[in-house]
Amino acid sequence: MVRVLIAEDMHMLRKALVALLEFEPDIEVVAEFSSGADILPQARQLRPDVAILDIDLPGVDGLTAAAELHTAVPECRTMMLTSLGRPGNLRRALAAHVAGFLLKDSSPATLCDAIRAVARGERVIDPQLALAALDDGPQPLTPRELEVLRMASEGEEAARIAARLFLSVGTVRNYLTSAVTKLNARNRVDAIRIAREAGWL
Q: Using an 8 Å Cβ cutoff, are 143 and 200 in contact?
């Protein structure tokens, strides 16, 4: 029996997933919830075989939770079920030791087969997304440029970013300008949009 934990903030979709999996004789849903903050404590207590996580969860996002699970509950393998089919998200998921990455419009049979494969220790990735990731160019920003852009995306002003990173305001502005240039963006807001759509933020 494959014991599954589901974290999905869309109530209707989560309930549909639970109902779908209950029809499978060899899959048991042991927990389902809407907040990313519940994932780690519940997984520690219940020790599921597979955690099916949405990327954009409130509290703790799915990728952060996947990385935490890999460290704290290593026998629980994670699978991302997402509508965000971006190559950058796939790369971030693989870096977080995610074993499965499927789009939400996958067929029920594909999902159930993927759960079983992930539980067996295999890796399952949506083939179209895998091809897109291979075709997609590398992420052009340096770690510092990405960090500054991420903080800007959270509404932080240059002076505040400088204080948090122990940099001068001028250096922070230079990083932001460099990010805008590398992404061929019109301005900082456009650079944030491009980076988000690529899955880098």
A: no
**59 is written with which tokens?**
């509290």
Q: How far apart are CA 26 and CA 136, in angstroms?
A: 37
Residue 14 and residue 114: Cα distance in Å, rounded? 17
Domains, the chain, in order of start with CATH, read 2-134 (3.40.50.2300), 143-198 (1.10.10.10)
Phi, psi of 110 (to 5 degrees): -60, -45
Q: What's CA 93's distance to the chain center, in Å?
A: 5
Task: Return the axis-axis angle of helices 158-165 and 143-153, rounded to nearest 10°.
Answer: 130
- The Cα–Cα gap between 96 and 90 comes to 10
Structure tokens at 118: 């992930």
Residue 29 host element (H or E): strand 27-33
HSE-up of residue 36 (Cα within 13 Å, Cβ side)? 18
Name the H helices within the chain: 11-22, 39-46, 62-72, 87-95, 108-119, 127-135, 143-153, 158-165, 169-182, 188-197
Evaluate if pTM is beyond 0.85. Answer: no
Residue-wise pLDDT tens digits, 25-83? 999 999 999 999 999 999 999 999 999 999 889 889 898 999 999 999 999 999 998 88
* Beta-ladder partners of 125: 101
Q: What is the DSSP string of 59-93?
A: SS-HHHHHHHHHHH-TTSEEEEEES---HHHHHHH
